[in-house]
Each structure stands twice: as C-alpha cells, then as structure tokens.
Amino acid sequence: xxxxxxxxxxxxxxxxxxxxxxxxxxxxxxxxxxxxxxxxxxxxxxxxxxxxxxxxxxxxxxxxxxxxxxxxxxxxxxxxxxxxxxxxxxxxxxxxxxxxxxxxxxxxxxxxxxxxxxxxxxxxxxxxxxxxxxxxxxxxxxxxxxxxxxxxxxxxxxxxxxxxxxxxxxxxxxxxxxxxxxxxxxxxxxxxxxxxxxxxxxxxxxxxxxxxxxxxxxxxxxxxxxxxxxxxxxxxxxxxxxxxxxxxxxxxxxxxxxxxxxxxxxxxxxxxxxxxxxxxxxxxxxxxxxxxxxxxxxxxxxxxxxxxxxxxxxxxxxxxxxxxxxxxxxxxxxxxxxxxxxxxxxxxxxxxxxxxxxxxxxxxxxxxxxxxxxxxxxxxxxxxxxxxxxxxxxxxxxxxxxxxxxxxxxxxxxxxxxxxxxxxxxxxxxxxxxxxxxxxxxxxxxxxxxxxxxxxxxxxxxxxxxxxxxxxxxxxxxxxx
Length: 481
Prior knowledge:
Layout: H1 3-26, H2 32-39, H3 43-71, H4 73-92, H5 97-125, H6 128-159, H7 168-171, H8 173-187, H9 201-220, H10 228-253, H11 268-298, H12 303-331, H13 333-358, H14 368-392, H15 398-427, H16 432-454, H17 467-476
Helix pairs in contact: 1-5, 1-6, 1-8, 3-4, 3-5, 3-9, 3-15, 4-5, 4-8, 5-6, 5-17, 6-12, 6-17, 9-10, 9-15, 11-14, 11-15, 11-16, 12-13, 12-14, 13-14, 13-16, 14-17, 15-16, 15-17
C-alpha cells in the first residue's frame, strides 16, 4: 500500500463518520412536517426529534472520549459507527413516533462515540503538514454537512426513493455507514493512552442527570401545562449540576481528572468564550427548527424548495467562517465577535421586518437579505469564539476545553430547541406569522446575549489561530488532558 493511499484511506473513513453525525443533526429539519403528518406526531415530539439527538450526543460525549482513550479509539469508532447504522435503520423503518424518538436518542449516543474518536485518530495517523491538511479537511467536512444538510434532506424527500419519503434521510446512512464500518479495521490503527484515569461513574451520572433534568421539563412542560414536577426538575438540575461540580473538584484533589474540569475557566477569555458559544447554540438549532416549519407549514414550500432557501444562510455561513481568522487578527477578538453577533441579530431583525411585510405569502426573495446577513454573522461569530477559546487556553488544558466546548454546543442546541418550542408552539394558535415572529424576537435576544458575553473577551486572543489550528491544539493535547 503506498503512502498516499495510506493517508487518504484513514481520512476518508474518518470524514465519513463526522459528516454523517453532523448531517443528521441538520437534515431532519426539512423532514419535520412530513414526519408529523405520516406518524401523527404532536409538536412536542418534533422538539424531541431535534433536541433528543443533541441531548444524548452532548451528555455522553465526555464519557465516550475518556472511554475511547482507555478501551481503544478504533474500537470505539467501530462500535459507534455500527450503533449509528443500526439506529439509522431503526429511524428509517420506525412504525410510530415513539419508536422514531427512541431510535433518535440512540443515534445521538452513537454520534457521541464517533465524534471525539475522529479527532483523536486524526492526531494518531497524521503528523506535521499532513495533520494540518487532515484537520482542514475535517473542518471542511463539518461545514459542508451543516451547510448542505437541509438541501440534502429536501432532495432525498423530493426524490421519494422507492416510496421512502422522509425515511430516506435516515436510510441513506446505512450503506454509507456500512462502507465505513468495513474499511475502518483495515485502515485505522488501534491506539490507547497510558495513564488515563477511568471516568468516574458518580460524576458521569450527575452530569447526564443535570442535563436531562434541565431539558425534559422545558420540552414537556408546555404540553402538560407546567405541573409541579417540571418546576422541581428545573430546580433540581441546578442542584445536580452543583453536585457534579463538587464531585469534579474532589476528584481533582484526589489526583484524578474530572470529566468537567473547571480549572481552565479561571481564564477570562476561556470562560467568556464558552459562555458565548453556549448562548450562540441556543439560537442556532432553534432557528433552523422554526424556520423550516415556517417555510413548509406556513408558506407551503416542499422539502426541496425549503432546502434551497436554507442554502442562502448556509453559503453566507461558509463565507463567514473563511473570513473569521483574518478579521480576528486585524481587529481583535472582542471587536470582531461582538460586531459579528450584533450582525447576526440584525439579520434576524431584517427577517422579522420581511415576515411582517409578506406574512406567509409574497416572494421568498424578501427573506434573502436577512438570511444572508444572519448566515455571515453566524459564521464569523462561531469561528471567532472557537478560535479565541482555543488560542487562550493553556496547552495542557486544550483537550479538556475542546471536549467541554463540544458538549456545551450540543447542550445549547437541546435547550434552545426546547425554549423556542415553548414560544413557537405556544403562539401557533395565533397563526404561523405570529409564532415565527415571536421566535425571531427570542433569537435576536440570544444573539445580543452573545455580543454581551463577547464584551468580556480580551481585545486580541493570546495566540491568533484559525478554527483548523484550534482543532489541532485540542488533538495534539489530548494525551495531556
């Protein structure tokens, strides 16, 4: 086997894995109306279809990463891919909404097994300039999956392959995943880290329990008219999160590494950057959810047409991510990220004005300026926040902070979907336009909150890095973390 083949083979398998798990978060948005009609699902089920994936993904990611270091990274990647294939098939053949939701939760858990091992294995296989190229390809694959998810979903539903309809967005994972599953043992090395402490069971239970206690009442509360248990759960989530923090502190005093390490948060840039990321993601997934429902249930567009509209935001987002590093280097983190977040908010305001003008009628072109501005602001903000956090963290903490960042992003997705669901579905009786406009007001608030968090960032990051280099820091420091 030639050196070039060796380099391409592992990367192809690894990028297939990361592309699928990112794609499956976004692809479902254009399928929600079809799923609701076909399986007679209520509004809460639609929220769980999006939020459930992010909840199990984010909740298990840190545990999966640590376990992979102990058990074997290739073995964890193979296990995760196999579970992802099986759960995707279960989603595709689900006879009821309950079966679909359960399979979707398992799919998120499988994604948690795949995600961290991809970066670790890239660090194991590639060195020097080859690693830089591999990380660039990794970032591109993630961006393409996020940017094209809605379009791919719309196209698959429109083609209605063998009468599969919306089920094709899940079934397409099966042959692709099986190909990666067959190739992985042939091209990926098996690696473990010596001296890594086992995940603490008590801390893991507390972390997952806190997340569940937070998201569960937010999603279910409105449907059940906010009974006492929902408020008790919300209060309990704070207490359990505090217990998790205390357990982590005790582990560190005992010489063990906790899953959630609070030590790096003493750096202002890291704390403010992670807060900004969390707030940003409470708006991103929520936005795709309600915008997809507005386009299809409100304006009557089909899945393919909706996917095409989404590409306006996706294209602008990709441009923003490409420009972020240069802007950070020239103007500094605080200025760029604050301005980009406010630009993101301004895009939502422009959309709000357009929707007020045309409602669910008129040309969809009215929406394009707001979509483009939002997408560009989103891309610069996210890339900037990742760059400044990873550029400010001490090398020995880079891996831990990277894992915490990914976890907070998925938690933000789940919580954001739950919160916007309360607003959107709570106003739906007043009409689609009122519901979507109220959701846009919420989204403006989340992005303004990101700008406020960015005000606490330093003027310039300690080390100017682009997103690809940020990933490299996290990967190369995984052993120390």
